[in-house]
């Protein structure tokens, strides 16, 4: 037996006797010319039955009707091979999930002479994969419902806590007012005692605000789930409305306000838009630089697909580190102004809940610029 | 602020206040409300009850002696045994109680709009957020 002969017979035996993969060859038209044991085992056709048949009989009926077998031959020829994981049909009509590789074969001169096809039965793997995916999906759903429950619990907890906290806190406030009146009536209210009473009332008020903010967060959460009533709002109108609230007598200087509303109307929740504008403008005023006149510029313009609200100030500004923490809950960078540090957290949440985004640019000593992007296509 | 003006609007025909009933499970609130009433000179007699049931029993006891029911009632919402809503339901349905001369104010720490809506389903004279202050009381009485 010469070496060449043994190599050829080895090749043919090797292919013929592979049992776990169907290996067969076709001519250029897809007519089966070679059929191995594995093909017989996987597909159910004997060699005698298969040879001479169009290989499309191995596809599910609807694939045959849709011309898939021919398309796959063309794709293999065009791209050098065709690989897929897909359904294939056995002789008895049953289907199995297969990994298939269809490769064109050429003679020594480069002439296309046919195709080889290797098909593996991976139904078991697919079943396992499907089962795994199903398990993952149900685990995910379980986790999700747990999360929703936790969120609800948290909301309920915050609500109850804020209610239960508010009652004794307002009671202290009322008691302090009574005490102050009693002291005054008894002529016992001097500068010292009055200051103490005022400081207690001040602390109580701060605590009340914190509690109100907590309640506001849960409200926001509920709103996002229940979809706020969106309406067409007039930017100028809302601006004028908040100006009235901003004009409270404070220790700080008045600011020069410049407005340029290129977009006059906006579709959004009125309540939330007011809150966003109020927070940004009041922050700009609050964090003004004492050494220069405070200027706040408020602009709107269109930047498809967004309406952009810009609030720019020449105030204290922020370091990059501060900017990173800007939108977290209860974060305040300066203690010379009132506030609980919840405003920007809520602004961000309101904007993002409605599909928008918020950006900030700031430099210490120069000022800050906030840009709120409202979706214009809603 | 909203509550105050709403209250003010309803206080048109003012009856002289002789008796007041304060219903709150927190003793400190009963004390504060009582003191504010006394300071403002509102009510010759101030009763307190710690829940809706006590309040209902008190009112029925007064009605049984043919005495006049309180002209003013301040009632909290969240209370054990019988809460403010249950009290409103029972009191306004009770054939024994003629509340035509009584103004009922809900006085609560609740900030839930739902609570206000629900309370407004009953014939109440106003919904006040705690704390009750001298100014708010005056705006109710005047």
Helical fraction of chain A equals: 40-55%
What CATH calls the topology of chain B is: Rossmann fold
Biggest interface found = A-B, 16 and 17 residues
| Whole-angstrom Rg of chain A | 37 Å
GO biological process, one term (chain B): phosphorelay signal transduction system
Keywords (chain B): Phosphoprotein
Protein name (chain B): Response regulator
InterPro entries (chain B): CheY-like_superfamily, Sig_transdc_resp-reg_receiver, TCS_response_regulator
SSE diagram, text form:
The complex is a heterodimer of chains A (378) and B (142).
Chain A: H1 3-17, E1 21-26, E2 32-35, H2 37-43, H3 47-50, H4 61-65, H5 68-79, E3 82-89, E4 95-106, E5 112-121, H6 123-185, H7 191-226, E6 231-234, H8 235-246, E7 256-261, E8 265-268, H9 270-286, E9 295-303, E10 306-313, H10 320-324, H11 343-353, E11 357-363, E12 367-375
Parallel strand pairs in A: 7-9
Antiparallel strand pairs in A: 1-2, 1-5, 3-4, 4-5, 6-8, 9-10, 10-12, 11-12
Helix pairs in contact in A: 6-7, 8-9, 9-11
Chain B: H1 2-10, E1 19-23, H2 27-40, E2 45-49, H3 52-64, E3 72-75, H4 84-93, E4 103-108, H5 113-119, E5 126-129, H6 134-141
Parallel strand pairs in B: 1-2, 1-3, 3-4, 4-5
EC number (chain A): 2.7.13.3
Domain PAC (chain A): 82-134
InterPro entries (chain A): HATPase_C_sf (IPR036890), HATPase_dom (IPR003594), His_kinase_dom (IPR005467), HisK_dim/P_dom (IPR003661), HisK_dim/P_sf (IPR036097), PAS (IPR000014), PAS-assoc_C (IPR000700), PAS-like_dom_sf (IPR035965)
Explain briefly what this protein structure is.
With 378 residues, chain A is of the alpha+beta class. Helix content of chain A is 49%, strand content 23%. The relative contact order of chain A is 0.06.
Description:
The complex is a heterodimer of chains A (378) and B (142). Chain A has 378 residues and is an alpha+beta fold. Chain A has 3 domains: 3-121, 2-Layer Sandwich (Beta-Lactamase), CATH 3.30.450.20; 128-226, Helix Hairpins (Orthogonal Bundle), CATH 1.10.287; 231-375, Histidine kinase-like ATPase, C-terminal domain (Heat Shock Protein 90, 2-Layer Sandwich), CATH 3.30.565. Chain A has 11 helices and 12 strands. In chain A, the strands form 3 sheets. In chain A, strands 2-1-5-4-3 form a 5-stranded antiparallel β-sheet, sandwiched between helices. Chain A has a 5-stranded mixed β-sheet with strand order 7-9-10-12-11, covered by helices on one side. In chain A, strands 6-8 form a two-stranded antiparallel ribbon. In chain A, strand 11 and strand 12 (367-375) form a beta hairpin. The model of chain A has no long low-confidence stretch (mean pLDDT 85). Chain B is of the alpha/beta class. Chain B has a single domain (2-141), classed as Response regulator (Rossmann fold), CATH 3.40.50. Chain B has helices spanning 2-10, 27-40, 52-64, 84-93, 113-119, 134-141, and strands at 19-23, 45-49, 72-75, 103-108, 126-129. In chain B, strands 2-1-3-4-5 form a 5-stranded parallel β-sheet, with helices on both faces. In chain B, helix 2 (27-40) links the parallel strand 1 (19-23) and strand 2 (45-49). In chain B, helix 1 (2-10) packs parallel to helix 6 (134-141). The chains are: A alpha+beta (378), B alpha/beta (142). Chain A binds chain B through residues 159, 162-163, 166-168, 170-171, 173-175, 177-178, 181, 212, 215, and chain B through 26, 28-29, 32, 35-36, 39, 78, 109-112, 130-134. Chain B: This is Response regulator. Chain B: The modification 4-aspartylphosphate is found at residue 76. Chain B: Residues 19-142 form the Response regulatory domain.
């Amino acid at each position: 037996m010469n070496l060449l002969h043994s190599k050829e017979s080895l090749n043919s035996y090797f292919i013929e006797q592979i049992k776990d993969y169907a290996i067969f060859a076709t001519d250029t038209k897809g007519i089966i010319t070679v059929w191995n044991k594995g093909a017989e085992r996987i597909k159910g056709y004997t060699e005698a039955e298969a040879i001479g048949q169009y290989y499309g009989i191995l596809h599910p009926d609807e694939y045959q009707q849709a011309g898939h077998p021919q398309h796959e031959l063309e794709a293999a020829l065009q791209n050098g091979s065709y690989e897929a994981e897909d359904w294939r049909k056995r002789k008895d009509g049953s289907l199995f999930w297969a990994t298939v590789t269809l490769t064109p074969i050429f003679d020594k001169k480069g002439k296309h002479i046919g195709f080889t096809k290797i098909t593996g039965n991976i139904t078991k793997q697919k079943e396992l994969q499907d089962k795994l995916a199903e398990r993952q999906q149900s685990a995910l759903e379980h986790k999700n419902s747990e999360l929703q429950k936790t969120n609800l619990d948290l909301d309920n907890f915050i609500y109850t806590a804020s209610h239960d906290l508010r009652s004794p806190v307002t009671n202290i406030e009322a008691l302090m007012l009574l005490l102050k009146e009693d002291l005054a009536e008894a002529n016992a209210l001097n500068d010292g005692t009055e200051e103490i009473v005022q400081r207690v009332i001040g602390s109580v008020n701060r605590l009340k605000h914190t509690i109100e903010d907590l309640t506001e967060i849960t409200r926001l959460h509920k709103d996002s789930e229940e979809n706020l009533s969106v309406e067409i709002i007039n930017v100028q109108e809302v601006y004028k409305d908040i100006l009235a609230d901003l004009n409270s007598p404070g220790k700080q200087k008045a600011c020069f306000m410049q407005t340029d509303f290129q977009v006059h109307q906006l579709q959004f929740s009125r309540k939330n838009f007011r809150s966003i504008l109020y927070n940004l403008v009041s922050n700009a005023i609050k964090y003004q630089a004492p050494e220069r006149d405070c200027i706040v510029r408020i602009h709107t313009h269109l930047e498809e697909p967004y309406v952009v609200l810009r609030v720019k100030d020449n105030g204290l500004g922020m370091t990059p580190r501060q900017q990173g923490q800007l939108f977290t809950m209860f974060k305040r960078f300066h203690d010379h102004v009132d506030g609980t540090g919840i405003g920007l957290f809520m602004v961000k949440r309101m904007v993002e809940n409605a599909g928008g985004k918020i950006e900030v640019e700031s430099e210490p000593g120069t000022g800050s610029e906030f840009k709120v992007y409202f979706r214009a296509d809603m | 602020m909203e509550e105050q003006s709403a209250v003010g609007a309803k206080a048109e025909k003012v009856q002289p206040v002789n008796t007041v009933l304060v219903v709150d499970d927190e003793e400190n609130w009963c004390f504060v409300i009582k003191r504010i009433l006394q300071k403002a000179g509102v009510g010759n007699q101030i009763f307190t009850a710690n829940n809706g049931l006590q309040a209902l029993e008190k009112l029925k006891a007064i009605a049984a002696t043919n005495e006049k029911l309180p002209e003013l009632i301040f009632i909290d919402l969240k209370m054990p045994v019988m809460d403010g809503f249950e009290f409103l339901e029972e009191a306004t349905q009770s054939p024994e109680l003629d509340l035509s001369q009584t103004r009922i104010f809900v006085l609560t720490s609740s900030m839930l709009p739902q609570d206000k809506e629900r309370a407004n389903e009953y014939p109440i004279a106003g919904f006040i957020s705690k704390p009750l202050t001298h100014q708010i009381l005056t705006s109710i009485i005047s």
